[in-house]
Every structure is written in C-alpha cells, then in structure tokens.
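Long-time lurker, first post. I've been practising inverse folding by hand and with some scripts of my own, and I keep getting stuck on stretches where the structure tokens seem ambiguous. Below is the full token string for one chain I'm working on. Before anyone asks, I'm not after the true native sequence, just a reasonable design that respects the backbone. If someone could post their per-position residues I'd love to compare against what I wrote down in my notebook.
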C-alpha cells in the first residue's frame, strides 16, 4: 500500500470549481473531484501554519495549550509512527516555517526529506548590493520585504519558483518508487500563500484593467484599498492558484500513467483559507475565523473503498488525517489521538463527531456543528489568564526570551504528555486588530456570516458542546476562566 498527500497552504475552498466557483481556471481540481470524495464540511482545528501541522502529526488539538511551536518530545508523530512500522515516509516541501526555530522538529520525523527555498521572506540568498524595489502595496516592513525581492529576482522562470521545485522533487519520488510498496509521500507547497507571486502566463488567465502599483501581498488588517485594488489582488491569488492546479495535474497524470489508483491513497488538503476582502478584512489571525478561513477543501481517494465523484456532508477536521493514514497502513492509533479515521465517512457518510473545535491560542475559541458557528470571546479586556505549556519554548522565528523564561514554572503532566511535567509560561495573544466579540451564526440561513444571531437556546447548546470538547482535550482551567465559563468549574475539574 502507498499514500500521497498533496498539501497546499492557504487554499480557498470558495475559489475551487468542485465547490461551485465558475471563474477560477482550475481544471485539475475538477478532475481531482471526479476521482475522489469531496468533503463539504471540513474545518480547521489549530491555527495557523505550524499549529495546523502539529495536528497533522498528532491528530489532536493543540491551540488550547500553546501557541506556535515545534513538535513536543511527548507528541505522537504520524510520519514517525509509520516509519517505525516499516513505512518509508518522505517530505518534499518549500514551507519555510519548517526551517525556523518554531518548526524545527517536524521534517526530521520523516524517513527522508528535501526542501526548496525562497518563499515569502525566507532568508535564502544574500544580495547586499543596493537595488530599487518596485513601487508596490502591501508586503512586510523592513528587511523581510527586501529579502522577498532578493528572492524574487532568482525566480524569473516558472521552474525556478519553489512550488515548481517542490513538485518536481515529489514527482521524482513517484517515478523512482511507484513500483515499490509501503511508502507515504507528503508533497507540501507554501503556495497559494501570500505573496501571490507567479508567472505572467497565469496572470494572463485573468485579464482586467488595473493601473495601480504592484499589489500581491496584503497586510493582515482591515481593507483600506480601493475596490479596483481588491479585485486585482483576488485575480493575483487566482493566478497563483492556477499554477497550483497545473502542478496538481502532474501528480494525477503519474497516478494515471502508473495505474496507482488501485493501491494508493490520495489526500489533497490545506491548513486554512484566507480572506480576500470579505468581511472588509485581509488575511487571517487578526479577525474572527470566518468560514473563508476556517471552512476548508478536502479530497480523499481510498482504493480500499473505491468511492469517487461524490460529496460527503459529515463534519471532519485536520485532526482526522493522521488517524486516516495510520488506519490505511494498518497501524494502531496512539491513545492520545483525538481524530478519527475517515474510512466510514468515505464509504457511507457515517458521522464521526457532533462538533468541531477550532481557533488560535489566546483568541476566540470556536465551535461548529455544521449548522451553527459559535465564536466565544474572552470575557475580560486583558484576555487573561493565558499560558503556554511546553517543553520546547519556541515562537515562530525565535526561542522564548530569557525574560519570558524567568516567569516560567513547572506544571504537573497533562493527560497527553506521557507523564512529563511541562513548563507553564505566561503567554500573550496574537495582536488582534478586531475587537473581541462573542458571535453566533446560522450557516443554513446566513452562509456568508453577515448577520450574527441572538438565540439563547442555541448558544447554550453550543457552549455545552464546546465545554465537552475542551474537557476531552484536557484544556487547562484558565481557558475556561478566560472565556467566562467559570460557572462550569465544578464539572470541569
């Protein structure tokens, strides 16, 4: 048995033809949907990039216990479990966060791995010579923005872009090993993550009038740009998505050429979506997690079942992917995994959960049952108490500071830390540019989440469901205090 996962970063469900989009050029995603099961109710769990990848490895939520960071010593890693059970695991990626302090323990869990450099502001090539950066909107201030332009100057051809190199490496693995057995290939590209930089060939698929400065990298903030600039950025995203579509097609071509559909599991997924001006916001992480971010595309082909060309309505999440892969290879699931193998959903749309938690450490805690989305805000203005629990005190691009660690103390083990006590370090939320507000949406009557509702009975039910899932995750007590759930303390403890 063999398995391939093609993972995109920031892939918007609403812009894919299998989910109803009629203007984005993505024929291979439509082709994919004809060969797989398309999931209608797939949701994120822990946000953003590395928290989502921790779920991909461990099959459990992590955003209630810590923010961005490496895999922990006590974590169960799906690729490593497969490796220990005789399954060769290989990662081909250009996701720059793997090579930072905050992602440093992920890629080494695979049997073999390879990288391509240059995405976003990746500190890749050194060019200290002065040069003029083109007039542009957005980007990131200072050295990061300059580094991105250094990188772009090395990508004059499509084959030079990190996405192209990543897929070329993955295709090489398939060509070399298609006749062998017992392997898992993880092809993961940072695209279509911002900046939405691609070649003119793909931009020409979306002709439109635009005479403003270059704009392919929005700020994580409220929309301040003109309607013409907003529409232009959407076309730039679509152009990069079309490049992703072409490379996806190359994977499908090899599966056809080598008749791999008979014995190869295929998963095509993402970590989250991205706001492109909807709700008057750009990006993610600094506003409520509307469905444009939280409601994700997911496609799976399982040769044991053979179901394809259909949609499944059951509620699923990122935490289900690790159990699905382990189950496919006949490997027992660790007791700490909370996700569920999706075989029964694929076969008969059998539900695997009543509700799905999702969120960002120190922000809203959200829950959906597929009909409603409930966003529970912090109960007080200073968003406290809040702590990180970790044995790997590392942020995105740097380790915890000495000042942070001076305030650390040891805390007794959680149920999932294998008996290991952990460091309890005072934490802080991501900078939130939107005021925290508890929100309830009825997706059936308001799929665009434009009109929050007031319904005490629904809110009470969703709150109870949230509490039960937080308890199952062994959430620390202060999360209930932070969210104003202190009236449930006796039942929680």
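-- Answer (accepted) --
I ran through it position by position. Result:
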């Amino acid at each position: 048995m063999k398995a391939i996962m093609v993972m995109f970063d920031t892939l918007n469900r609403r812009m894919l033809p299998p989910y109803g989009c009629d203007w984005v050029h993505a024929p291979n995603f439509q082709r994919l949907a004809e060969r797989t099961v398309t999931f209608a109710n797939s949701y994120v769990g822990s946000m953003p990039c590395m928290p989502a990848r921790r779920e991909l490895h461990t099959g459990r939520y992590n955003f209630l216990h810590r923010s961005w960071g490496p895999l922990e010593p006590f974590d169960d890693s799906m690729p490593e479990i497969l490796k220990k059970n005789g399954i060769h695991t290989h990662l081909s990626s250009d996701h720059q966060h793997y090579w930072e302090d905050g992602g440093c323990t992920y890629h080494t869990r695979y049997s073999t791995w390879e990288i391509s450099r240059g995405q976003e502001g990746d500190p890749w090539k050194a060019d200290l010579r002065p040069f003029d950066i083109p007039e542009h909107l957005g980007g990131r201030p200072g050295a990061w923005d300059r580094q991105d332009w250094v990188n772009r100057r090395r990508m004059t051809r499509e084959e030079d872009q990190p996405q192209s190199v990543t897929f070329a490496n993955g295709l090489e693995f398939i060509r070399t090993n298609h006749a062998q057995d017992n392997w898992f290939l993880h092809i993961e590209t940072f695209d279509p993550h911002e900046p939405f930089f691609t070649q003119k060939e793909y931009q020409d698929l979306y002709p439109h009038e635009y005479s403003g400065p270059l704009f392919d990298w929005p700020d994580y903030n409220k929309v301040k740009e003109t309607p013409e600039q907003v529409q232009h950025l959407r076309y730039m995203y679509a152009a990069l998505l079309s490049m992703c579509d072409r490379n996806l097609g190359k994977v499908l071509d090899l599966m056809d050429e080598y008749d791999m559909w008979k014995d190869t599991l295929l998963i095509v997924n993402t970590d989250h979506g991205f706001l492109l001006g909807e709700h008057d916001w750009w990006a993610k992480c600094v506003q409520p997690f509307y469905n444009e971010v939280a409601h994700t595309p997911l496609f799976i082909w399982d040769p044991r079942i053979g179901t394809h060309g259909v949609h499944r309505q059951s509620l699923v999440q990122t935490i289900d992917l690790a159990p699905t892969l382990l189950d496919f290879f006949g490997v027992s699931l660790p007791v700490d995994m909370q996700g569920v193998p999706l075989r029964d959903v694929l076969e008969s749309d059998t539900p695997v959960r009543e509700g799905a938690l999702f969120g960002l450490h120190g922000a809203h805690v959200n829950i959906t049952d597929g009909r409603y989305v409930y966003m529970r805000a912090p109960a007080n203005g200073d968003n406290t108490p809040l702590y990180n629990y970790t044995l790997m005190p590392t942020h995105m691009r740097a380790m915890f500071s000495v000042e942070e660690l001076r305030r650390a103390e040891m805390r007794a083990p959680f149920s999932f830390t294998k008996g290991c006590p952990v460091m309890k370090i005072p934490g802080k939320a991501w900078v939130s540019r939107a005021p925290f507000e508890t929100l309830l949406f009825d997706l059936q009557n308001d799929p665009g989440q434009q009109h929050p509702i007031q319904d005490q009975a629904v809110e009470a039910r969703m709150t109870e469901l949230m509490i039960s899932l937080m308890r199952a995750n062994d959430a620390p007590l202060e999360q209930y205090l932070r969210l104003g759930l202190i009236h449930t303390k006796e039942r929680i403890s």
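A couple of notes from the structure itself: The chain has a mean pLDDT of 96. The radius of gyration is 22 Å. Happy to go over any region you disagree with.
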